[in-house]
Amino acid sequence: MEWKTAVTDLLGCKYPILQGAMERLADWKLAAAVANAGGHGTMTGSISRTPEKLREDILACQEATTGAPGTFGVNLSIGLCPEIEKMLAVCLDLKMPVETSVYKPDALAPMIKESGIPWIHKAARVKDAVHAEELGPDAIILVGVEGAGIKNPEQLPTMTTIIWGRRQLSVPIIAAGGIGDARGFLAALGMGAAGIMMGSAFLATKECEIADSMKEAITRLNPENADLRARVLTPRPSRRPDVNPTGDTIPRETDWSQAVSLAAGSIDRISTVKELIEGIIREAEEILNGWRFLKR
Ligand SMILES: Cc1cc2nc3c(=O)[nH]c(=O)nc-3n(C[C@H](O)[C@H](O)[C@H](O)COP(=O)(O)O)c2cc1C
Question: Top-level CATH class of 6-242+250-287?
Answer without folding.
Answer: alpha beta
